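ping. complex inputs:
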Amino acid sequence: MAQQRALPQSKETLLQSYNKRLKDDVKSVMDNFTEIIKSAKIEDETQVSRATQGEQDNYEMHVRAANIVRAGESLMKLVSDLKQFLILNDFPSVNEAIDQRNQQLRALQEECDRKLIALRDEVSIDLYELEEEYYSSRYR
Amino acid sequence: MATYSLANERLRALEDIEREIGAILQNAGTVILELSKEKTNERLLDRQAAAFTASVQHVEAELSGQIRYLTQVATGQPHEGSSYSSRKDCQMALKRVDYARLKLSDVARTCEQMLE
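pong. complex structure:
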């Protein structure tokens, strides 16, 4: 069971603000969409002339559509902020990423050293023969 | 290249949520466009409206889950781990390989010169 640690005030406030933004944006999308659908209903009796009512409905739908788009963009910004927060503060993932990188680099280093040692053994045999040839020649 | 599975899983989930938000706006647009027609296709309308509602609820649930997870794991401290030491060791190993290659090429050149 995960234990709730005492977060610093700023981080806790930040996470609460994320929750609030999420709820507000989702509510905005749903409410504005519902109101657009409602205003699509054709009324038989209107307080003003049909033309005026039509203009009003048109303007209202524009505003509500813009609100839906604004809420959508705000949600995208929230997702971007959450990604940033995750990269910086999700310690289990960061620890695992660091461990994996360390393992990968250590494996590469061991491979290089192993191959160098094998190369050293082969070259020492050839060098022995080269030395014999050189010291028994007239060029030494 | 190693895959950082755990870290990328959550980031990939967030990217899917971003795509779904785009789909939400598109569904909303399709529903309103369909309503504006003289002869509406009711089945398409119902399907798109249901997809819109389901997507909104799914996005809200997923993002709440991510925020809840972050509330549990965030400590407020900066992470001080690094892979610098193993990176340095690996870099030195690669330098040793380069040096060995350089010396071997010197020996090979010397042997060729002697043969000439």
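The mean pLDDT of chain B is 89.
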